[in-house]
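ugh ok fine here u go
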Amino acid sequence: MSSKHAPVWPIYKRLLGYTRAYWGMMVAAVIAMAVESVAGYHFTKLMEPLVNRGFVNPEPKMVNFQISKKFILWVLGGLEFRLSRTCSLRVIPE
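structure:
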């Protein structure tokens, strides 16, 4: 009971031809999502010194430094989210 199937690669090649105009935006969106993932990881890693040196053994200078780093990272994450959302909407409109 074997059935013959048409080759699949020509179909994918034809479908990928339709997406050619959106490759730049797709690459930008993937890069922006990778940056967001890395920033999220580092945001959680930045919490450890804040907890250890800010609350367990308080150092006021360290608290201000950590909070300013987190604020900058938060702003960059927001800008990255806006960029990835804009790029994604150009590729896949709502």
